[in-house]
Amino acid sequence: MKFSKISYDRILGDKTEAYQKENDEEDINKVIDIIRPIADQEYLDQIARRCFNSYKESADIENDPNASL
């Protein structure tokens, strides 16, 4: 099983930076308040996708009679 890190800070930072580029007059605290729910959902979606893919891969291996563990 391959493990990879999902960085909430990177997701929040990237989305905040992109929003601020188009709305440079906004206060950073307001921008974070706007972006946080979007970043939260993206983070949870990435975790769900990776967990599902890991589960699917392990299920495929368990069902494959030719797979070696």
Question: End-to-end distance, in Å?
Answer: 11 Å
Count every beta strand, where a strand is a DSSP E run of 2 or more residues: 0
Share of β-strand residues: under 5%
Report the average pLDDT across residues.
84
Q: Major sheet, described briefly?
A: none
Order of helices and strands: HH
Stretches where pLDDT is under 50 for at least 5 consecutive residues are none
Q: Tell me the number of helical segments per DSSP (H or I, 4 or more residues long).
A: 2
What sort of overall outline do the alpha carbons produce when their principal axes are compared? elongated
Return the structural class: mainly alpha
Radius of gyration: 18 Å
Helix content: over 70%
List the helices and strands and how they pair.
Layout: H1 8-22, H2 28-63
Helix pairs in contact: 1-2
Write a concise synopsis of the structure shown:
With 69 residues, the chain is an all-alpha fold. It has helices at 8-22, 28-63. It has a domain at 9-17 and 25-56.
Written account of the structure:
- There is one protein chain.
- This protein is mostly helical.
- The chain has a domain at 9-17 and 25-56.
- It is built from 2 helices and no strands.
- The longest helix has 36 residues, at 28-63.
- The mean pLDDT is 84.
